[in-house]
Amino acid sequence: MLNWLRRGRGSRQSTSAVQVETASCAHLVLMPRWDAVEHMGKAELATGYKCDACGHDLTREEGQEALQRGSRLFGT
Ligand SMILES: [Zn+2]
Fold it and tell me: What is the Cα–Cα distance from 44 to 65, expressed in whole angstroms?
């Protein structure tokens, strides 16, 4: 669980190339993130999401909208 969170955060630097990708990305696979360690693993308590494809950070509201449009959580 912790391993993939670290990998997702560390593997991508924010560059202008990422921004271009973000514009055309549908954010189909979202990695939830949590502010409180004790909430980790509980999707309903996620404070935000990060797109696995483009690395874009989504707010909790944006992430839930994307999930309703058919996106899925990372690992599901
Ligand atoms: Zn994306």
Answer: 13
Could you state, in order of their start, the residue ranges of all structural domains in the chain? 2-73
Q: How many CB atoms lie within 10 A of CB 59?
A: 11
CA distance 26 to 28: 5
- In angstroms, rounded to a whole number, what is the distance separating the alpha carbons of residues 6 and 16? 22
* Residue 51 pLDDT greater than 70, yes or no: yes
* Distance (Å) from CA 52 to ligand 1 centroid: 6
H/E stretch holding 32 reads strand 29-33
Distance between Cα 57 and ligand 1 center (Å): 8
Per-residue pLDDT reduced to its tens digit, 3-42:
665 555 555 555 555 555 567 899 999 999 999 999 999 9
